[in-house]
């Protein structure tokens, strides 16, 4: 992310990217404190450090384009425009949450915003995205679906079947691998001999690309190109976004498998700080602008938490609605 | 306002969580997100962070003491919530 790239864009657009990434970080940090307070049930998979992948990809999508997500969905949801309030209510199990309190963290989503409720089965979103791509193609709509999954998911059978079927039918699907180098505690080197996950694209006869996933503009540009290829009937595309989670796999994970030196290196290159440092090289942006965005976002999240804490829970009468089995 | 800090759910398969070390002394300021203590579970040794900023008023489980998920481990006088 050079100082030249940053000059190509409108200030408002760039500050919008910063705001969206900071919203994700602040949301995740506040949820962590709610967990430590003991008021947030279950465990939670958070995405601190991976904000640029979600924001870069979703910014390249239209409102009526779709995403599928994983067990680590908060960033994807916020980036696609799901409201922080409806998500916090959902996390507290409230009936006015984005899944009426029946989904919780790992099934966050909002079809009206173009996000299928997240699927926590590793690789589970991939074949669904292929199905959605087939629907878009048959209906002849210009819509595209981006499916997020981790490095771990690329060794699942669902990945092979989903991506191969999308390839043979030229479906408008962007396969977005967030390579954070670990599937839970297992390093990616232990589950594949490939140095580069994007190389898997060759096995399906499609284009693959590895991108610095901590550089929000690099992700945005790569996603924009991939989305356009899909709209033009030249998809699918596999994007590998290299990033790092600077928090545990779940809230219960002490993260001892991440070498300290490696973790520090990635922390120093976390996407929000890195983007902020380049942003202020513009003549029309200063640290004050960024500070103003941060405090406004903090207010948004604090008031969403207030609403979430007091949201009404589902009643017995709600037990059999919106469920299929 | 005083807040009781409870042992968070660390996903242990047995009940006992042992306090290995307190990283803050009674009377000291703590910041939200700051590691308060180290604990050992059946799975790992890990740090537990404070969810509030304030002054550590009381340590409820001493070093080598054993506690469980949801039990009060410290009392913090809060400066902001
Ligand atoms: C099919 C399946 N197997 C195992 C699990 C348990 N599990 C949850 S997350 C995870 C690791 C996934 O790693 P990766 O795909 O790299 O995503 P990341 O957590 O790094 O975002 C595992 C094994 C699961 N949810 N689904
Ligand atoms: Mg991973």
CATH topology of chain A: Rossmann fold
What is the CATH top level name of chain B? Mainly Beta
Number of beta-strand segments of chain B: 8
| Associated small molecules | thiamine diphosphate, magnesium ion
- Assembly annotation: heterodimer
CATH topology annotation of chain B: OB fold (Dihydrolipoamide Acetyltransferase, E2P)
CATH structural architecture of chain B: Beta Barrel
Please tell me about this protein's structure.
- The complex is a heterodimer of chains A (325) and B (81).
- In chain A, the strands form 2 sheets. A 5-stranded parallel beta sheet of chain A has the order 1-2-3-7-6, sandwiched between helices. Chain A has a two-stranded antiparallel sheet with strand order 4-5.
- With 325 residues, chain A is of the alpha/beta class.
- Chain A has one domain: Thiamin diphosphate (ThDP)-binding fold, Pyr/PP domains (Rossmann fold, 3-Layer(aba) Sandwich).
- The model of chain A has no long low-confidence stretch (mean pLDDT 96).
- In chain A, strand 4 (182-183) and strand 5 form a beta hairpin.
- Chain A has helices at residues 11-37, 51-59, 74-80, 84-91, 125-139, 157-168, 216-231, 260-268, 271-279, 287-309; strands at 66-68, 145-150, 173-179, 182-183, 186-187, 207-212, 237-242.
- By secondary structure, chain B is mostly beta strands.
- Chain B has a single domain (2-77), classed as OB fold (Dihydrolipoamide Acetyltransferase, E2P), CATH 2.40.50.100.
- Chain B is 0% helix and 52% strand.
- A 4-stranded antiparallel beta sheet of chain B has the order 1-8-6-3, with no helix packed on it. Chain B has a 4-stranded antiparallel beta sheet with strand order 5-4-2-7, with no helix packed on it.
- Chain B is elongated.
- Classes of the chains: A alpha/beta (325), B mainly beta (81).
- At the A-B interface, helix 1 of A face strand 5 of B.
- Residues 150-152, 180, 182-183 of chain A line the site of magnesium ion.
């Amino acid at each position: 992310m050079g100082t030249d790239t940053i000059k190509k864009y409108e200030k408002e657009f760039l500050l919008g990217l910063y705001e969206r990434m900071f919203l994700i970080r602040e949301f995740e940090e506040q949820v962590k404190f709610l967990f430590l307070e003991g008021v947030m049930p279950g465990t939670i998979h958070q995405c601190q450090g991976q904000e640029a992948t979600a924001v870069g990809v979703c910014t390249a999508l239209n409102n009526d384009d779709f995403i599928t997500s994983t067990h680590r969905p908060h960033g994807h949801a916020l980036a696609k425009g799901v409201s922080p309030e409806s998500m916090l209510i959902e996390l507290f199990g409230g009936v006015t949450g984005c899944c009426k309190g029946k989904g919780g963290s790992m099934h966050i989503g909002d079809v009206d915003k173009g996000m299928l409720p997240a699927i926590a089965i590793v690789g589970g979103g991939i074949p669904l995205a292929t199905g959605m791509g087939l629907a878009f193609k048959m209906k002849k709509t210009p819509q595209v679906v981006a499916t997020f999954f981790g490095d771990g998911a690329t060794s699942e059978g669902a990945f092979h079947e989903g991506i191969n079927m999308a390839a043979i039918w030229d479906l408008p699907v962007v396969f977005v691998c967030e390579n954070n180098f670990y599937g839970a505690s297992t390093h990616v080197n232990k589950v594949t001999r490939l140095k580069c996950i994007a190389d898997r694209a060759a096995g399906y006869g499609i284009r693959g690309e590895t991108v610095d996933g901590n550089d929000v503009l690099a992700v945005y540009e790569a996603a924009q190109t991939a989305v356009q290829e899909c709209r033009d009937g030249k998809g699918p595309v596999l994007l590998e976004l290299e990033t790092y989670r600077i928090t545990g796999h779940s809230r219960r994970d002490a993260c001892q498998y991440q070498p300290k030196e490696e973790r520090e290196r990635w922390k120093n290159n976390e996407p929000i700080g890195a983007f902020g440092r380049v942003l202020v090289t513009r003549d029309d942006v200063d640290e004050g602008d960024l500070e103003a965005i941060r405090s406004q976002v903090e207010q948004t999240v604090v008031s969403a938490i207030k609403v979430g804490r007091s949201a009404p829970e589902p009643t017995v009468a709600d037990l059999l609605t919106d469920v299929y089995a | 306002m005083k807040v009781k800090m409870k042992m968070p759910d660390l996903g242990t398969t047995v009940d006992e969580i042992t306090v290995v070390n307190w990283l803050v002394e009674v009377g000291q300021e703590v910041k939200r997100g700051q590691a308060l203590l180290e604990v050992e579970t059946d799975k790992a040794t890990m740090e537990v962070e404070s969810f509030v900023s304030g002054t550590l008023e009381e340590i409820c489980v001493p070093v080598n003491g054993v506690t469980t998920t949801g039990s009060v481990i410290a009392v913090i006088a809060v400066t902001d919530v």
